[in-house]
Design the sequence.
């Protein structure tokens, strides 16, 4: 098995290639629950800047199909809020690097990613997958038992 090293915006600039980054997206913000995201904002980054940004609707796809959507879009990195262990596994199998536990403006997160200053916590996993409750991660700040950000 050959290990493939993913480029960063810095190494891409040196190699002159484009990197595609997706962000879970809602109303300009990083959406806080990967498995419930209704859209991704997808950024093509080249030469240290965003060349193209577009919003992609997931058509209500659930946890399992989202990694496949990102793979078909040729996304190399995902920026998101909380994410479950099954989604982490699916992203890893698809060769997509993820940056979890991010909040705030999606555009600002991508700018920080390009600068190498993105604050993220890949241990920000959702602990209530499959539960049906009124307090879904997309509608609150995900404090309490929703996400662990030790």
Sequence:
């Amino acid at each position: 098995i050959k290990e493939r090293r993913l480029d960063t915006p810095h190494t891409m600039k040196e190699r002159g290639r484009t990197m595609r980054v997706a962000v879970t997206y809602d109303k300009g913000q990083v959406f806080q629950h990967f498995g419930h995201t209704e859209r991704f904002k997808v950024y093509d980054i080249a030469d240290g800047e965003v060349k193209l940004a577009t919003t992609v609707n997931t058509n209500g796809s659930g946890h399992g199909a989202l990694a496949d959507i990102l793979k078909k879009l040729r996304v190399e990195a995902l920026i998101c809020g909380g994410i479950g262990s099954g989604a982490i596994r699916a992203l890893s199998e698809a060769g997509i690097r993820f940056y979890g536990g991010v909040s705030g403006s999606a555009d600002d997160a991508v700018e920080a990613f390009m600068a190498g200053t993105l604050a993220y916590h890949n241990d920000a996993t959702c602990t209530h997958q499959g539960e049906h409750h009124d307090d879904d991660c997309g509608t609150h700040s995900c404090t309490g038992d929703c996400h662990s950000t030790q």
User: Anything to note?
Assistant: Residues 1-6, 128-150 have pLDDT under 50 and may be disordered. The CA atoms of residues 27 and 71 lie 24 Å apart. The two ends are 33 Å apart (CA to CA). The beta strands are 19-26, 29-30, 39-46, 49-57, 77-79, 97-99.
